[in-house]
Recover the amino acids of this structure.
């Protein structure tokens, strides 16, 4: 009998998937770029060396993804924890991107990316279980 539906993975909002990918990419970027700048500065593209460029774009992408993930996740599981993690992550990345420069920017963006990863992970897990 096939009429019993599988756990609704088809209807799972994809915002958290893209949020996890994006935050993971920025985490790797923030870990490797300062290292590459010290070891092999010639290999780091010029636009990436310009302060804030990479993270401004990252922030423009992460903001709507986090907002849609918060909204669609809360509608499904009614838990506040992902909203708190994602909200903190967005705030930390915004502060790092638009207020700080250089190494402090990278360091704080790593913290923000970890907060975002945690928020998207919880959101996705709880969306699956409801
Ligand atoms: Zn980054």
């Amino acid at each position: 009998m096939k009429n019993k539906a599988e756990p609704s993975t088809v209807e799972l909002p994809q915002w958290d998937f893209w949020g996890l990918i994006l935050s993971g990419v920025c985490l790797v970027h923030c870990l490797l770029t300062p290292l590459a700048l010290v070891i092999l500065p010639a290999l780091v593209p010029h636009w990436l060396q310009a302060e804030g460029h990479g993270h401004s774009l990252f922030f423009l992408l992460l903001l709507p993804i986090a907002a849609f993930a918060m909204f669609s996740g809360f509608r499904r599981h009614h838990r506040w924890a992902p909203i708190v993690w994602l909200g903190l992550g967005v705030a930390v990345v915004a502060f790092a991107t638009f207020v700080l420069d250089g190494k402090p920017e990278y360091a704080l963006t790593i913290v923000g990316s970890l907060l975002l990863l945690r928020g998207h992970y919880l959101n996705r897990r709880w969306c699956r279980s409801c």
